């Protein structure tokens, strides 16, 4: 078992190094959420008191913080899928599977790397928001809960990236799925509360698991430590993780045995 | 273990019934450098992928280092070093990082892995470039790093899939030297695929020629060459009046062959080893030799005769793979 642990850690470290040595890989996942957070805060910052149904918050920035974190995790986890597909395309994957590397280490190392990257992102967005006047009602505990949930979220999203990579074997195909994730995020309460939405948009946001996931994280920031809300988020993450990580494990096996 | 690689009736059929490898048999004794020679799409890479556990055979069986590639793949992977075509190397990592990573993947303890990495960097001449990202390496440097990575765990059998394709002549010769040294010093069995006749001739103790998924000829380069004909020995006597005498003596060693004016030529039935005897016989007869010219059939000649076509990629590099064969791009 011990070699598998070392292999996982060494491969995760390689994935993280790769990400930071390739600006195209990490820059968008920090830049775009930051831009959106800034634009939304600048546009709606003073009107939140006047929008019917908008929950009581200290400021829009506090509200937007978790949205930025989730968005960042999503971008970088899809990027992880792109890297994984690149490994398949360029033959690094062949090098791994022709060596005694544990099969689970190949998969788990990607997820571990995504978790580490997500943790860094959560801390970064939180720090920026706090520096510009956001507050976290849940205090230190609330902040830690949000960071932990962000790290956990990297598992199902990273799993999805790997699943797509294993299915398509093409980095371009994985990156091509990107707009789909974005749409999924915009049709949710990631950036605006469901209470302000109407019609079919509201219905979609209501059934979109991302809404409930984000709200569970956001509750820690805008209302205070809320274990029940955190539990809902964790539940959704776990459910998605079973689907995507399970799916990628199956795809990995099929790729290895179906050869 | 006397045979490092044993292959019996190995078949790989892809979807659509294309047999990329169509029932091949191989015996590679431990310590040999075996050259697998064939054009693109002949089945070389498919064979290597099966022997390195990357692809499952659809028929026949194969053992590498004594382990079955299907039932004991894990043991095979521990015993082999693999440097695949196109040097699969992560461009964002440095040479040293990749070697250390490879050591971890082979479960080599940290300290030992680090010292092994230094040793190998030195061995393949990459110590100065060790902390540069691989993306900045030249083609030759990548291949050398690839080779070093394949050697981290001191494998019993080393697979090199077209190790010098696309390299400049200097880098090619340097890599050959490294492979020779490895085989000489560590006794590592080397299974090498190539589309370069010269490479097979230079490196391999034995050569198998594969075409259309089948082995069409096998033997040492010398055996293969002599199998298609004896070498021609052409003697120019120092005294031009002695051409007829020279021809008479030469006729004892084989049938007469066409020579240039002023020379006598013979197809040496005794092979190239017979040259000394011819020279002695001429010497005994008091005929001084002006020049001796021995023309061996080349592996090129062997290839043409055995397969009916020239090896593309060797000189011109433009011949398309024959229709119906599966190129490596189309691998499922």
CATH architecture of the largest domain in chain B: 3-Layer(aba) Sandwich
User: Can you tell me the overall shape of chain B?
Assistant: elongated
Going across the biggest sheet of chain B, name each strand in turn.
6-7-8-3-9-10
Percentage of residues in strands of chain B: 25-35%
Q: What is the name of the CATH topology of the largest domain in chain B?
A: Rossmann fold
Main sheet makeup of chain B: 6 strands, mixed
Q: Could you give the distance between the termini of chain B?
A: 34 Å
Q: Number of helix segments of chain A? A: 11
Care to count the β-strands of chain A?
A: 0
Please outline the helices and strands:
The complex is a heterodimer of chains A (259) and B (332).
Chain A: H1 2-21, H2 23-44, H3 60-90, H4 92-97, H5 103-131, H6 139-168, H7 171-176, H8 178-186, H9 199-207, H10 209-222, H11 227-257
Chain B: E1 3-14, E2 18-29, E3 33-37, H1 44-51, E4 59-64, E5 67-68, H2 73-79, E6 80-83, H3 95-105, H4 110-123, H5 139-150, E7 157-161, H6 169-186, E8 189-194, H7 197-203, E9 206-211, E10 214-219, H8 221-227, E11 232-237, H9 243-250, E12 256-257, E13 264-267, H10 275-284, E14 289-295, H11 299-307
Helix pairs in contact in B: 3-4, 3-5
């Amino acid at each position: 078992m011990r070699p598998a642990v070392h292999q996982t850690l060494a491969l995760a470290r390689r994935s993280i190094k790769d990400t930071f040595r390739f600006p195209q890989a990490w820059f968008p996942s920090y830049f775009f959420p930051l831009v959106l957070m800034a634009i939304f805060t600048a546009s709606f910052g003073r009107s939140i008191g006047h929008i019917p149904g908008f929950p009581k918050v200290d400021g829009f920035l506090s509200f937007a913080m978790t949205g930025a974190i989730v968005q960042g995790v999503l971008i970088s986890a899809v990027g992880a899928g792109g890297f994984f597909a690149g490994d398949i395309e360029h033959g690094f994957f062949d090098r791994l599977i022709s060596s005694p590397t544990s099969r689970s280490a190949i998969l788990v190392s990607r997820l571990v790397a995504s978790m580490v990257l997500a943790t860094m992102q959560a801390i970064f967005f939180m720090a920026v928001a706090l520096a510009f006047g956001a507050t976290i009602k849940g205090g230190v505990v609330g902040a830690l809960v949000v960071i932990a949930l962000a790290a956990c979220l990297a598992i199902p999203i990273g799993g999805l990236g790997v699943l797509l990579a294993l299915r398509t074997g093409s980095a371009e195909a994985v990156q091509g799925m990107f707009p789909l994730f974005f749409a999924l995020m915009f049709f949710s309460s990631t950036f605006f509360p469901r209470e302000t939405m109407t019609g079919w948009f509201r219905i979609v946001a209501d059934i979109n698991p991302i809404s409930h996931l984000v709200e569970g994280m956001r509750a820690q920031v805008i209302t205070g430590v809320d274990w029940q809300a955190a539990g809902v988020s964790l539940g959704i993450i776990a459910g998605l993780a079973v689907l995507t990580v399970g799916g990628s494990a199956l795809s990995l096996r099929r790729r290895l045995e179906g050869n | 273990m006397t045979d490092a690689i044993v292959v019996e009736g190995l078949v790989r059929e892809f979807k659509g019934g294309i047999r990329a490898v169509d029932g091949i048999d191989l015996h590679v004794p431990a310590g040999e450098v075996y050259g697998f020679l064939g054009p693109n799409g002949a089945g070389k890479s498919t064979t290597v992928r099966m022997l390195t556990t990357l692809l499952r055979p659809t028929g026949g069986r194969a053992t590498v280092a004594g382990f079955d590639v299907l039932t004991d793949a894990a043991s095979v992977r521990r015993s082999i070093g693999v440097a695949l075509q196109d040097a699969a190397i992560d461009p964002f990592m440095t040479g040293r990082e990749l070697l250390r990573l490879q050591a971890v993947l082979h479960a080599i303890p940290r300290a030992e892995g680090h010292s092994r990495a230094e040793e190998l960097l030195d061995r393949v001449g990459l110590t100065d470039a060790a902390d540069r990202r691989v993306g900045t390496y030249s083609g030759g440097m990548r291949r050398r790093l690839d080779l070093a990575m394949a050697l981290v765990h001191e494998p019993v059998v080393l697979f090199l899939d077209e190790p010098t394709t696309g390299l400049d002549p200097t880098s090619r010769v340097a890599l050959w030297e490294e492979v020779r040294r490895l085989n000489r010093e560590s006794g590592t069995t080397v299974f090498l695929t190539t589309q370069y006749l010269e490479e097979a001739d230079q490196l391999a103790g034995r050569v198998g020629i594969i075409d259309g998924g089948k082995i069409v000829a096998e033997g040492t380069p010398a055996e293969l060459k002599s199998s298609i004909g004896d070498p021609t020995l052409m003697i120019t006597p120092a005294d031009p009046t002695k051409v007829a005498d020279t021809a008479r003596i030469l006729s004892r060693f084989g049938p007469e062959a066409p020579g240039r004016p002023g020379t006598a030529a013979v197809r040496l039935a005794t092979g190239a080893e017979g040259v000394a005897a011819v020279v002695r016989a001429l010497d005994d007869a008091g005929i001084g030799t002006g020049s001796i010219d021995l023309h061996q059939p080349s592996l090129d000649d062997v290839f043409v005769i055995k397969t009916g076509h020239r090896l593309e990629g060797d000189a011109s590099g433009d011949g398309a793979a024959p229709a119906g064969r599966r190129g490596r791009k189309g691998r499922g």
